[in-house]
Amino acid sequence: ERLTGVSRESAGAIPGITRTCGSRRPWRLSGSALSRRLHTMLPIIAIAFSWTGDTWAEPQGLPAGHNGGVKERLTTPAGGRRPHILMILFDDYGWADAGWHRNYTAPGGEFLPATPEVATPHLDALVREGIELDRHYVYKYCSPSRSALQSGRNPYHVNPLNAEPTISNPDDPVSGFQGIPRNMTGLATKLAAAGYRTAGFGKWDAGMATPDHTPHGRGYQTALNYFHHCNDYWSFTDGGCPVPYSGGDKVPIVDLWKAGGGAGEGRLGEGRLGEGPAWGANNTCVRDCGCGCSVEVGPPAECAAGPLGDPWWGGYEDSLFEKHALALVEGHDAAVPLFLFFAPHIVHTPLQVPQEYADRFAFIAPTDKPRHQRQVYHAMVSFADDIVGNLTAAFKRKG
Fold first, then answer.
1. pTM for this structure?
2. pLDDT tens for residues 328-337?
3. In 3D, which of 4, 105, 1, 85 has the Cα closest to residue 42?
4. Nearest-5° angle of CA 365, CA 320, CA 281?
5. Which of 23, 106, 188, 364 could form a disulfide with 219 if both were Cys (CB 3.0 to 4.6 A apart)?
6. Backbone angles phi, psi at 227, to 5 degrees
């Protein structure tokens, strides 16, 4: 709550649900230089608020009764303004796979030489221009890290389990689901109350059991996301629904969800308003490999982008998120503060990438494994780095 500069007033709470506030201790910035598998937060802009005034407001641009009707306390920004915020979260990104950690002596004295395998010029530029939190610990799994980030709490105080989103405990209507408990307020809700336009794109993995758990339920006025730990980059499928009386057959689930719809939201504003499946943004193919898809370069022949899908890279999932995020930024009124959360699928499995990016790292093939995991992985990192460059450039063009 100190991060967002607002506190809470329990007004109109959901019957039977007690709303509580978290620890008042500040976050500790620390990190493991030896971690080989971690989630990397890349905050582009940090903001701080001074504690003055007692103005209370409901989040704007969200359904009536959002967040149980709880109002947020607003304060005057310490800098006298509300800056635009772009927050990017990489998934399963290796510490030594970042360009600014090459040609570098790590804490403890280990030297990591430069290598052409690691090419992240846009991320490197942000580190040079800004501040690197090089001792910032995060949880070792997807969902606890994301739940902590969205709620502003220690993972053990919000969600210590990297469980499947289908789990539930009928005896606990508040915390008996995967992800963030229903009685916790999300970061985007806080910022929406402060007058921000809020939008989120990419991986969610912080709950989906009820409308309170979705990105929209957590304060994102516009969103395009998938819910699970991972899915197929080309068909967006993961898992399946049992077919009655079929003897165990399942229909693959296309895991792609949208919220919003209206002016200034790019092509997400077309078609159905409100929250629901992202019809037309998915590809035409349906495959059942999901998270378990094999290493794959280029789109399968049977996969083609839908009418609202990605026309740039054959329907590649992270390109789809990039396309809609860029459209939103370009159509946004720069006079209104914008909070954009972008969480690419990259570089979580399955290892899949467009052909052109794999070709850029063909020099790895002679020393790679037979399935070219290292080549595809570094190509995926390069793809995500280009997304960062495109998004930051779009923000700068808008001033």
1. 0.84
2. 999 999 999 9
3. 85
4. 130
5. 188
6. -95, -35
